[in-house]
Structure prediction request, 298 residues.
Amino acid sequence: MGDRPDWAVEGRDWPNREASRFVTAGDLTWHVQTMGQGPVVLLLHGAGAATHSWRDLMPRLAERFTVVAPDLPGHGFTAMPRDNRQSLWDMARRTTALIETMSVRPSLVVAHSAGAAIALRMSLDGRFGEAPIVAINGALQPFAGPVAPLFRGLAMGLFVNPLAVGLFAQAARDPGRVARLIRGTGSMIDDRGVELYGRLLRKPGHVAGTLGMMGSWDITDVLRSLPQLIAELTLVVGTRDQAVPPSVAEEVRASLPAARIVTLAGLGHLAHEERPDLVAAVIEEVAARHGLMEEATA
Prediction:
């Protein structure tokens, strides 16, 4: 699709830029940030985001852990797959190739929104062993009802239409529109965060990657397989989330009674950007129960 974010331009003052590197794994060149020492925590962002989403949480976690955060395929500064395949299975397969290339063995996985579905797919496929998963406002519900095929079709239609993608990217040049888009998720983030989202959304290549992911998204198999999950799952829920209804967490727990729900009052879909301190505390509590805090201080 072209016109992807340029590391020398959009990435010129990228958050935690000193932790960035580019890794070739499988058929992609990935942008990955790594910092800290200790047990490995893998961070997987959601659709439409990139590593900037972890800008304040990542340094906090790096005080105790080795934190690894990639831009997912087609997002941020990671290349778009040449075959344009961005199904859940494809995203999980490619992310597996990345961590294997980097010789990374996550002790804990933290994933936001659609990233949570990728984490669960990888865990169900045996990629993480029993490493616990913390899902922040996990997008763990399929598109529902009779409009579902229409929505997926619309996303795919926009993805293959350069004009439509370009118009969306052009509209994102208005900072007010980007701010309204983020407010629509139920979150209030700082001006820096809004500017970074706008920086990406103004690039048609990033928009195409987001729409391509949405258009091919199907988590039916993951939800069907949830009872087989051996990893502990913690569902962090922002009560103001307008993107993923808080009720989704209860539906997941109905399939997986062992899942834990942690509610963060007054926070929206981007809870980890609004209050990284609260989200870090949840992650550290999970890590402590699994003995990872002792390893971090050993």
